[in-house]
Design a protein that fits this description.
The protein has 289 residues and is mainly beta. Among the domains are: 60 residues, no CATH class; 88 residues, Single Sheet (Histone H3 K4-specific methyltransferase SET7/9 N-terminal domain). It is built from one helix and 23 strands. It has a 23-stranded antiparallel sheet, with no helix packed on it. A hairpin with a 5-residue loop joins β5 and β6. The longest helix has 9 residues. The protein is rod-shaped and about 100 Å long. The protein starts with 5 loop residues before the first strand and ends with a strand.
Length: 289
């Protein structure tokens, strides 16, 4: 007895208002709600909770339209932020979670996987400067397998530019940076890290390990001159044990430090005969010339 039931309007002492359907004293059905902070909700209610399809305006200026569960954005929905950013996709417990597309006008367009409100999993992101990344993400950053490319002709990022998006899909190609270098491989925190290959504009090509954006570990580099080095690297330089094969097939085998040989054997081109041993940048034991 004395409980709202049917259609009615309630003004609470806290500054909240509700206008809509009731059932046994609870908001149940279609209704509109506003609180003292400026939050507004219009949509379906179940047992005093926003549940189903609804629209909301947030105090900071954002608007959401889509599915709700237990007063939280949950399911499929479209969110327009106060700064103009737009997200359309899946939600879970008020966080972007699942598959979705984020557009920040004049900055970027991301389409792919989300987890706990950040990019996580496989996704594609195009940036306003014409560059794009396609690959794995973690905690909102490039992480894992992926390719980064730069295309000067990429259409400006816009939430309404569908043709530009299709052009991006058709234009996949070499992952080139602003210097014309091509990289394909692993990423960590937006830098080259792990296994990968890079073809440089000068004609060199490196395949192997990377750390924090530079060649580090084990790898091989074929130079534009026809020379080749295969072995250990440290901070982008030949460092450790490795073999250099020159265009005339003469080989230097041994230890290197900071791009210079420290102690190497020189092998003849025709039969791998050791013809000299060098150490500390000077010939130590000339064996055969």
């Amino acid at each position: 007895l004395g409980r709202p039931h049917g259609q009615g309007r309630m003004v609470y002492g806290t500054g909240e208002t509700y206008d809509g359907q009731w059932r046994h004293g609870r908001r149940y059905g279609q209704g509109s709600y506003t609180n003292a902070n400026g939050f507004q909700y219009r949509g379906r209610w179940v047992a005093d909770l926003a549940e189903g399809i609804g629209w909301a305006h947030f105090p900071e200026g954002g608007q959401y339209e889509g599915e709700w569960r237990a007063n939280k954005r949950h399911g499929w929905g479209l969110m327009r932020g106060a700064g103009g950013e737009i997200y359309e996709g899946q939600w879970e417990n008020d966080a972007r979670h699942g598959r979705g597309t984020l557009v920040v006008a004049g900055r970027l367009r991301y389409r792919g996987a989300w987890k706990d409100d950040v990019q996580c999993g496989w996704g594609e992101c195009s940036y306003a400067d014409g560059s794009a990344y396609v690959g794995e993400w973690r905690d909102g950053r490039w992480h894992g397998k992926g390719e980064w490319r730069q295309r000067a002709a990429l259409a400006a990022v816009s939430d309404e530019d569908d043709e530009g998006e299709e052009e991006e899909e058709d234009g996949r190609g070499p992952a080139r940076d602003s210097q014309g270098n091509l990289y394909a491989g692993d990423w960590f925190n937006n830098v080259r890290h792990g296994k990968g290959s890079c073809s440089y504009a000068c004609g060199d090509k490196y395949v192997g390990d990377w750390a924090h954006g530079v060649r580090h570990g084990t790898g091989s580099c074929m130079y534009g001159s026809g020379d080749k080095y295969e072995g250990e690297w440290r901070y982008d330089k030949r460092d450790g044990y490795g073999t250099a094969v020159f265009a005339d097939n003469v080989r230097f085998q041994g230890r290197w430090e900071e791009d210079c040989w420290v102690q190497v054997r020189v092998c003849a081109a025709y039969d791998s005969t050791v013809v000299a041993v060098y150490g500390n940048a000077m010939p130590l034991i000339p064996l055969l010339w």
